[in-house]
Design goal:
Largest sheet: 11 strands, mixed
Helix content: 25-40%
CATH architecture of the largest domain: 2-Layer Sandwich
Oligomer: single chain
Shape: globular
Strand content: 15-25%
Number of helices: 21
Bound molecules: zinc ion
Number of domains: 4
Strand order of the largest sheet: 7-6-14-8-9-13-10-12-11-15-16
Length: 755
């Protein structure tokens, strides 16, 4: 930088300031924004990325600097998220002009990585313009939009550290990349049809390239074919959602019997035809995260979401998805993760071709590699606002909380719906949804994600505090134990409660925490899942109440067969009913389970509310095996939708235990006298809510924290909102299910090591 010729004679009114911005400010066009802003405010100086954000030096008149600083916050690019702006006086260097400097790298990076972004309006317009160079080009992007986390291989976020490194820019792209006034200035994935990656369609031995590939895929989809489509963070399997035969074929080939499929529609108007879209749901649907939004279905699409009154809808977020619709693909497109059953989504090309060979009729494949698997996120607008049920694309790996901890902490989460958290300089980064670690590929993804995050943030493993679930047989526990560094075990349900408080930064707040889920390892080695705690993250949580204990016959398989779990609960009743006869008609498995209970062999004590939901579902007719976790509870919730509000059954608190016996006995009596299943299901939900109210009645002075997979139940949340209003706190940034466990673990660990 040249000095002004007479720096020592400059007007004394000029001052210099150093401004530092933290948050999501890299890879979102922030430096060119600062460049334009500084020029507009007649300031000299420079801007550069550093490990923790964006570093700015400005020189000029004090009032100009002041308005410049205000404008940074007020006018920041839409994809940016400013967490903090700090500034201090600096020495005047007598600079002229404003420049963008290269990234500075001196120490461990702590900046937030930008999640992937949906294609922006400017790029969409350009893509539809026949005169534009990037007309119909599926890899169009700019600093406001496009891939980020899913193409990143290392920090800092520069092109050589992305999967675009194999495509040198042409002169046209290079010129835009270097022009601070262009919206592609330093857009790392910049590309055009002349220099960038391409798409092809493979069907049998036929290969089509370019836009013909997209048109051919759209045509196949219209004809009822199943097409594997490469997306941002993995492959999708697509088919016409209004073609029942295609949907059925997809289910059979994917070995996915009943779990709902998500639907992609071209726009909000099309979404409104399929679902009832509240304002909050629409905000979620159109947000930059573009999640799958669960909303009440308006029409039934055969086979898409069996036994479910909700439908998951999402808008297109990649240029290719827009091109597919424009080329005539069906406007109600099933877009489901490309995998078999509950394996993780396929994202690497050879792996996808192999694993999807028997499922997809054709492949629409882009050349740009995917650096890591990132699923679609799932969210719902509920009585407490937006709730994330699966946190992945668009959200990960954003910071979700600030914790009082200088030391790096790795929290490895739980084995179901796994996600991991890394805390660097007190910033808690939560990974994308990884999945169930019983699958080999998920376990690999789990290891890879940990390695990935640690290497991106230059974490030296021996410095780490590694936090894991207290379950001695979890895969995640075994992996944590094998890592170097100090270890800390955190009890599952306390982690659920702590996750809500970590999000809110309320680590010192005394609360009554309610953790209801399917299963988690308790202090006494039994299976917990219906727990009440008092205390705070800072001072720890004491268990003050729980569900009455039942004895689960057969261990893990009890979670797959509601009638098997039911045997453990129903045996405690004073009842002579034979549940294998009408109206219950339990299958033989129930009788065998009951024998185990009576002989006291292979029994596992549990306080799981998830299993109580299974028992209730079994009593009302769900007597088959579940094909995915939480299915029986979802079925029960769906069933209760047919009933108006009814009175709760008795669910008394006795010696610190909520006694399920009067509750189940009342349900059975109602069933025998022919009351409608819908009303009984509704009354069961009311009873769970009343049980919480009874316990909460003893702790009226403190907030009520609700977490655990059971609180994904929309009806239960409604009842909680009606009973407690703003006194009830739920998860907002991480899922209430086990996807949020890692954050709770990290918070409890952070206070454990805080000075
Ligand atoms: Zn754009
Ligand atoms: Zn180019
Ligand atoms: Zn849990």
């Amino acid at each position: 930088m040249a000095r002004a010729p007479h720096a020592d004679q400059e007007a004394p009114a000029l001052v210099a300031r150093r401004v530092h911005i933290q948050g999501i400010v890299q890879g979102v066009g922030f430096r060119p924004f600062v460049y334009r802003l500084a020029s507009a405010h007649h300031l000299a100086g420079w801007v550069r990325n550093d490990e923790s954000g964006v570093d700015i030096h400005v020189e000029g008149r004090p009032e100009c600097i002041e308005s410049f600083q205000a404008a940074i916050t007020a006018e920041a690019p839409s994809a940016a998220h400013i967490a903090r702006q700090t500034s201090c006086a600096a020495a005047l260097e007598g600079l002229t002009g404003f420049v963008i400097r290269d990234s500075e790298r001196r120490e461990r990076p702590t900046t937030a990585l930008s999640p992937d972004l949906p294609v922006c309006a400017a790029c969409l317009n350009e893509m539809q313009d026949p005169a534009a160079r990037r007309f119909r080009y599926p890899y169009i992007n700019c600093t406001e939009c496009g891939p980020r986390y899913s193409i990143l291989t290392a920090l800092p976020y520069d092109r050589p550290n992305t999967t675009m490194r194999g495509w040198p820019m042409c002169e046209y792209c290079q010129a835009q990349y270097e022009d601070p006034n262009d919206r592609r200035f330093h857009a790392q994935p910049i590309a055009c049809p002349h220099c960038g990656p391409r798409y092809s369609m493979r069907s049998g031995s036929a290969v089509t390239w370019g836009h013909d590939a997209v048109s051919a895929a759209a045509l196949l989809l219209r004809d009822g074919a199943i097409v594997a489509v490469k997306s941002l963070g993995g492959y999708h399997l697509a088919c016409d959602g209004r073609n029942a035969e295609s949907v059925q074929a997809l289910r059979e080939r994917k070995f996915r019997k009943e779990r709902p499929f998500a639907i992609m529609i071209p726009g909000v108007a099309a979404a409104r035809e399929l679902v009832v879209l509240s304002d909050e749901a629409e905000t979620l649907l159109t947000s930059a995260q573009r999640p799958i939004v669960l909303a009440p279905a308006r029409i039934a699409l055969p086979g898409v979401a069996p036994d479910n009154d909700e439908l998951g809808v999402m808008l297109p977020y990649t240029p290719l998805q827009h091109l597919l619709f424009a080329a005539g693909a069906p406007g109600t497109l099933v877009m489901t993760s490309a995998n078999r059953s509950s394996e993780p989504i396929a994202y690497a090309d050879p792996d996808a071709s192999e694993r999807l060979a028997g499922i997809a009729d054709a492949f629409l494949i882009g050349e740009r590699p995917i650096a890591r698997r990132v699923d679609d996120s799932v969210a719902r607008a509920g009585p407490f606002g937006g709730m994330i049920l699966r946190r992945a694309r668009g959200y990960a790996p954003d910071v979700v909380a600030t914790l009082p901890c200088k030391r790096p902490v790795l929290a490895v989460g739980a084995d179901l719906k796994n996600a991991v958290a890394l805390v660097i300089d007190g910033q808690a980064f939560v990974s994308q949804h990884i999945g169930d670690l019983e699958h080999y590929q998920s376990l690999e993804a789990f290891r890879q994600t940990i390695e990935d995050l640690c290497s991106m943030y230059d974490v030296v493993p021996v410095e780490l505090l590694v936090v894991h679930d207290a379950h001695p047989e979890y895969q995640s526990t075994a992996h944590a134990s094998a890592l170097p560094g100090e270890k800390l075990a955190v009890q599952h349900h306390r982690a659920h409660v702590a996750s809500v408080l970590a999000e809110r930064g309320a680590l010192d707040t005394d609360v009554l925490g309610v953790a209801f889920d399917g299963t988690g390892y308790g202090d006494d080695g039994t299976i917990w899942g219906g727990e009440f705690f008092t205390g705070s993250v800072r001072c720890g949580f004491q268990r003050v109440a729980s569900l009455r204990e039942a004895l689960l016959p057969g261990g893990d398989s009890a979670a797959r067969f509601p009638v098997q779990a039911a045997a453990g609960f129903l045996d405690q009743l004073n009842s002579s009913v034979d549940f294998t006869t009408p109206p219950f008609c339990f299958p033989q498995r129930y009788r065998k389970a009951l024998q185990l209970v009576r002989k006291r062999v292979r029994l596992f004590p549990t306080t799981s509310v998830g299993r109580l939901f299974d028992t209730a579902a079994a009593l009302l007719g769900f007597t088959r095996a579940v094909t995915f976790e939480g299915q029986a509870a979802m079925w029960l919730e769906h069933l209760s939708g047919g009933s108006a509000q009814v009175a709760a059954y008795p669910f008394p608190l006795r010696d610190g235990r909520l006694d399920f016996r009067p509750l189940l006995e009342s349900m059975i009596a109602d069933r025998l006298r022919g009351r409608s299943e819908a009303e009984i299901a509704r009354a069961f939900h009311e009873s769970i809510a009343s049980g919480i109210s009874i316990v909460a009645g003893g702790f009226t002075q403190v907030p009520l924290v609700l977490s655990g997979g059971v609180f994904q139940n929309a009806l239960l949340l409604e009842l909680m909102q009606a009973a407690f209003g703003a006194r009830a706190w739920t998860n907002e940034k991480v899922p209430p299910n086990d996807g949020g466990i890692c954050l709770g673990q990290a918070a409890l660990a952070a206070v454990a090591v805080a000075p």
